[in-house]
Design goal:
Blueprint (H helix, E strand, L loop, with lengths): L4 H5 L8 E12 L6 E12 L3 E5 L6 H8 L7 E6 L2 E2 L5 H11 E4 L11 H11 L6 H13 L15 H14 L4 E5 L7 H18 L3 E4 L3 H4 L4 E6 L2 E7 L3 H21 L6 H9 L3 H8 L10 E3 L3
Parallel strand pairs: 2-11, 3-8, 3-9, 6-7, 7-8
Antiparallel strand pairs: 1-2, 1-4, 4-5, 9-10
The structure holds adenosine-5'-diphosphate (ADP) and magnesium ion.
Adenosine-5'-diphosphate binds next to strand 2 and helix 2.
Length: 309
């Protein structure tokens, strides 16, 4: 397990140990003509203070995985634990409370409130959670802006910032709520190379300096390689795990998965025969087994675990 000097000064909710656990999580969307199994029994454990990238071909379930893990969407089956506590199954208000206190989210679109300043945007989640701005919280917010190199932008509005700066504000906002897990879905998708690199370095730094746990979905091997570990999804299942990744290794594994997805795609019948196509995605059929086996990667029936260095 990783420990950080700064982690004590700024404890992460849920404490040391396990930041995220998914136990046999499934998600089935009721499609127009037939159901779509977007997640097919995903189990994983992420220790606190780890940085994990999630990759996979388009449609493999990356966004669904993040949304179910973050309490933005409800799994059809299985359990999600954030910071050691189970995501409540009850009413929407309970889920919202849970999310506000334990989960941070950064999207491709920065989702900043245009008429609020940087400081006001960063403060917003705490206000929504009913926390009155204590002097300590104010000091901490200022420290976060300072560490993220955006302190001098505190009084600007989003329209007066570059894309990279806006995304850094979005990350500051997520970090200020001290989430057990910070989820990011394609956080560099709308940025140029330099802006993207700053955002990735910032996520990396939040792990190293604050002991933050970060889970990032990306389709960019260079971005993915900023993480400690890359997990690969295919057809709603975790099929591979790459610790200490390099961009080249990530690109190589993705090429194989894309290749398999394309071959599977060619076998997929035309829309008129969606029944058969669904059966193919729903059950781990012989085809899926063979496809997975031919990546020569081990499969992980029980939780894929990401441990601190
Ligand atoms: P990724 O992010 O890896 O591209 P998604 O998680 O967005 O994949 O989607 C996984 C699968 O679930 C895809 O087949 C997609 O079409 C389907 N899907 C995603 N969201 C919905 C939805 N709201 N309704 C129906 N099907 C969906
Ligand atoms: Mg997606």
């Amino acid at each position: 397990m990783m420990t950080y000097g700064v982690a004590e000064e700024r404890p992460v909710r849920g404490g040391a140990g396990e930041a995220l656990r998914l136990a046999s999580v499934t998600k089935v969307y009721e499609g127009v003509s037939s159901p779509v199994t977007a997640l097919d029994g995903v189990s994983l454990v992420l220790e606190s203070g780890t940085f994990t990238s999630v990759m996979g071909p388009s449609g493999s379930g990356k966004s669904t995985l993040l949304q179910c893990a973050a309490g933005l969407d409800r799994p059809t089956g299985g359990q999600v634990f954030v910071g050691g506590d189970e995501l409540p199954g009850g009413d929407e208000a309970a889920v919202t409370r849970f999310r506000r206190t334990r989960v941070g989210f950064v999207f491709q679109q920065y989702n900043l409130i245009p008429y609020l300043t940087v400081t006001q945007n960063v403060r917003l989640p705490q206000q929504l959670a009913g926390r009155r701005g204590s002097r300590e919280e104010r000091r901490e917010r200022a420290a976060i802006l300072d560490r993220l190199g955006i302190a001098d932008l505190a009084d600007r509005r989003p329209a007066e910032l570059s894309g990279g700066q806006q995304q850094r504000v979005a990350i500051a906002r997520a970090l200020a709520a001290r989430p057990a897990v910070l989820f990011a879905d394609e956080p560099t998708g709308a940025l140029d190379t330099a802006g993207g690199r700053q955002v990735l370095e910032l996520l990396r730094e939040s792990v190293e300096r604050f002991g933050q746990t970060v889970v990032m979905v990306t389709h960019d091997p260079v971005a993915a390689a900023y993480a400690d570990t890359v997990l690969f999804l295919a057809d709603g299942s975790l099929v591979d795990r790459l610790p200490n990744p390099t961009a080249e290794e990530v690109a190589g594994r993705m090429a194989r998965l894309d290749d398999l997805a394309a071959r599977r795609g060619r076998r997929t019948p035309a829309p008129a025969d969606t029944q058969a196509a669904t059966a193919d995605t729903q059950a781990p059929t012989a085809g899926t087994q063979a496809a997975t086996a031919s990546t020569q990667a081990p499969t992980y029936p029980r939780p894929m675990t990401v441990k601190g260095a």
